[in-house]
Structure formats: structure tokens, C-alpha cells
Amino acid sequence: MDYNYKGLRLVYSGTELTEEASATLSQEYNIVNVGNVSELEAYLNTQSLFSTPDVIMIEIEDQERVFSVVNQIKNNPLTSGLIIVLLNKVPDTKLRARAIKAKIHDLYFYPYSMEDLKDRLNFLIKFKLIKPNIEQLAVIKKQKEYQIPRPKRLFDILAAGGILLVLSPVLLIIALLIRLDSKGGVIYKSKRVGTGYKIFDFYKFRSMRPGADQQLKDLSALNQYADDGSGTNAFVKIKNDPRITRLGNFLRNSSLDELPQLFNVLKGDMSLVGNRPLPLYEAEMLTSNEWSMRFLGPSGLTGLWQISKRGKGEMSDTERKKLDNFYARNYSLWFDIKIILGTFPALFQKEKV
Predict the structure, then answer these.
(1) Does residue 353 fall inside a structural domain?
(2) DSSP assignment, residue 14?
(3) Is 265 in the same domain as 332?
(4) Model confidence over 238-258: pLDDT tens digits?
(5) Is the peptide bond before 111 cis (omega within 30 degrees of 0)?
(6) Tens-place pLDDT, residues 85-114
(7) Membrane spanning segments where (predicted)?
(8) CATH code at position 47
(9) Are 265 and 272 in contact, with CB atoms under 8 Å apart?
(10) Which domain range does residue 121 map to?
């Protein structure tokens, strides 16, 4: 379906919008330049249900003032659904983390490609018009629904079933140690997004203390977001995570915490090999055409990026997503076997993934 954006209003707050940039955006949007942030606030106070803009772009001059206005926008029922894009003159890691925490739709640093910005706005507008939530994405992508090939599915059932049978004593010992190590259940279940944006319960041996999920927001603000310079990072990684138990560190370092996912494989939620299923909040950031390809191939227990650079230093967000896209386009049973064989030496390398 094609969308006509010309009737949509884009409000720009700042002084750096050049005539060329304005001409590019005005081809598809009605541009309203309101000046500084104070004038933006005054402009929004005059809007009604029928005149509220669709997109707000704000140049950051006074960071505290800008985020104060953003907070007002999000707390007002009339404007809470507006798309907000921030523009800053220089890259700033702390600003990026703050923008993510405030759920800003996007953040760009000068100089940026106007074409890239326009493409991003087009996607955000389309996404707003069809109003999907993550549960609806499977329906939106249904025309490209992935069906696992029979040979791959048969291989998954036989391999996962055989591994579970052989390792059943190990599973029982780990379960007992978890119960002795800390309070809480043995199995940790979380909602993950797999193939075709399908949501399922993802199983792991519990490696964290109870209530760890509630601590994630506070910890992520104090630690690092993977940074590839795009402003739209999705893979969150926290160093020296204090929520992990002593036994949990061992289980993670040895990847033994992943063993219950073999039951996910038997159920058909995922495959032995594929792109790692993501938490909902991360999957929601990968809905553009560029990155949604990763959800059109199988999701899996291990994958291409896990063996490509593991133990060779940090891998950027973009590198991981490109490898996921490559696998989605090129997977095969023989490719899967090659990845499985590469997984075993990767387990003993230093980097935690």
C-alpha cells in the first residue's frame, strides 16, 4: 500500500534547516518552522485535536530544555503519539542513552544524509498510520511468512531430542544447583520475537536473582548501549551485570544456561541454527525494511554472528544485523551444519555473547 504524506505536518524547531533540506522535506510534508524550543512549546499549546502535527524535529541547543518539552509532549494525551526526532551538532554517547531512555523515535548527529533522514521519517510515518504493535507485526509480514523446510525441521527434532536425552543427567544436576544457589525458579521464561515476528516463551536456566527484569532500565542507563553511530541501536549489553548470581556467571560463560532452548527447538518455536530471537523492546527497533529481513529467516539457538567474530573483539550493532540478514538470505542445511561445527570452539573463547 502506498501512503501520501503530503497532507501530514512536520514541525521543525531550530535554526539550521537549510533551504535545500527544507525543499527536500517539503516535497512530501507540510513544513512548519517554529523557531526555538520556547516557540515550539508555545506553538503546541495552541494546537487542537484537528491541527496537532504528526512529526516534530528539534535541534538541541539546551538539552535540559529540550527534554523538558519532550516530557510535556509525551505526558499530554493530545500529543503523546507524535513522532519526535532530535538533531544534535556533535556525537554524544550520554545524549544517545538519554534519548533511548526517553523513547525518542530517532536521534541524528550532524552531518547526516537528508535522504536517509527522509527515508526514516517515511518509515516512522507509515508505521504510525498502520498503528501496529509488536503482536500485529506477524500479521503485517504474513505475505512473507517463513515456513521451516522439512529437512531442517527433521534435523532439528532428531538433533535436539538426541542432545536432551544424552544430557538429561546434566540438566538435572544444573537444576538442583540453581535451587541451592539462590531463591527462585529453575527455568527463566521471557517473551522473545522470532521468525515472522512470532512471539513465544523463551527458556533458559535462571542465571539472575529474582526481580532482575525490574532492574534493567536503571542499569542500562548507567552502562553501555552498543554504539554503531546510527542512533538506532537495538542490542543492549550490560557489562559486569550485578544481577547475575555466582552460579549464573558459570552457566553463562559455559553457555549451559542455553540448554533449555532445546525444548523451544522441539516445540518448533525456533531452530538449532538461525538468528537469535530478540526481546520485544529490541525487536520493536528493528521493523524498518533494512533490518526486518532478519525476521524472515529461521530463528535459532546459535547463528552466524555467534561464530564469526566471537573472541575477536566487540562486534558493532550494524555488523550483527548484517550477518543476520545474510543468514536469512542464504541459509541451508549444509550451512547450518558448518555453523554448528563452528559453535563448539566458539564456546571456549573469551567474549560473552
Answers:
(1) no
(2) S
(3) yes
(4) 555 667 888 888 998 888 999
(5) yes
(6) 999 888 888 998 898 888 888 888 888 777
(7) 154-178
(8) 3.40.50.2300
(9) yes
(10) 9-131
- Whether 216 is covered by a domain: the verdict is yes
pLDDT of residue 2: 41
Query: Do 164 and 102 fall within a single domain?
Result: no
Instruction: Concatenate the DSSP letters of all residues of 144-160 into one string.
Output: G-----HHHHHHHHHHH
Among 36, 37, 43, 59, which Cα is nearest to 9's? 43
The answer to whether the pTM exceeds 0.70 is no
Q: Residue 273: beta bridge partners?
A: 302
Question: Would you state the pLDDT for residue 228?
Answer: 37
Q: How far apart are CA 130 and CA 110, in angstroms?
A: 30
Q: Enumerate the H helices of 106-149 as residue ranges.
A: 114-130, 137-140
- Pair (188, 106) in one structural domain: no
Q: Write down the mean pLDDT value for the chain.
A: 77
Residue 116 lies in a domain: yes
**Side chain identity at 334, as an amino acid letter?**
W
Cβ–Cβ < 8 Å for 308, 338: no
